[in-house]
Amino acid sequence: MSKRSIASFFTKAPASDQSTSKRVRISSPPREEEPGPPTIHESYPHPISSLPSSLLTLLDAYERQPPRHIKKPDLDVDFYQPFFPPSSAKPLYLFLRKYLPFYRVTYTIKRNDLETTVKTPRFTTVYGVDSHSYFSGSGGDDENRILLDSKTHRQIPPDRYKSCVCRPRPIPQCLEVLKNIVERETGDVFNFILVNYYASSDDSISYPDSDDEQFLGPNPTIASMSLGTTRDFLMKHKNDKNQTLKLPLTNGELLVMKGTTQKKWLHSIPKRSATISGSWTNGGRINITFRNGVEMACTGNYYRYNVGSGPVYRWDDTRSEMVIYEPASRESESESAKAEAKVEGET
């Protein structure tokens, strides 16, 4: 499948906005602008707003410096400081927190005949499908996109993803454009996007954790983008306790982990003693990871542990927190989104 050009994500932009042949360093913040026409799909809990064209321009046009390369035994990391400038990373954080659906997944694990209920210590969501399938069409507001087999290019059998707690979801515009930029800059290809929202200092990822699942391939590359509050990212070698790494990840930075990093190293985002409050982040952090799943088991795993079967959460500006989403009827929401997209396309 060919990649979409960044310019194709503009709904209607001046000619100067559509050129990506010459990228320049831009520091001025975008003017406040309403979201673009939403991405609609029947697998979404609600239509997902698209990035406004002014913000998309800033994200795409930024001239990035070469990454800092971090090399340790069995570790191979490229660190972009920053990947997006604060003038675009801040509104991107606010946009994604406001418009994406999130979940607080609860699941059961069994160890030595003892079952334990685990509540994920952060909000999560996921989009994409493994390399055995792909979505027809190319995004936008096409709610009729279907899953096709990567070899036959025919509609997949209905039981292919029976292990999923929900249907695989196509990547919405607001995330697909980020994927395209990351792919362009790193030279890697991704088919999954996982988003974590750390609401406070109590939200975390604990040791032992690594992304060394076989369904990602033998030496997977994972790109991890940070937005919002700075949090420490800790790494340690699985076998050599003297090999450690601590990276404070701040707004707009990108960490690209390659080679045997996932196989040989563990990582965590520890709890903090206090949350930064009163700022535009509300003490929160968004982490976006880009991955390439090569086995069908990947799809079932990611949706089971990042969507689950619980309620949908949305950000509430009035309460400054995630609240359970109470949708209007599916039909009225879809019609409203279509009308919004039509008006936007005519202006």
TrEMBL record:
Binding-site residues for substrate, renumbered to this chain: 212
Family matches, as Gene3D superfamilies: Alpha-ketoglutarate-dependent dioxygenase AlkB-like
Bias (Basic and acidic residues): 328-347
Ligand binding (2-oxoglutarate): 196, 198, 267, 285, 289, 291
Region Disordered: start-end pairs: 1-47, 327-347
Pfam families found in the cross-reference section: 2OG-FeII_Oxy_2 (PF13532)
Name of the protein in its database record: Fe2OG dioxygenase domain-containing protein
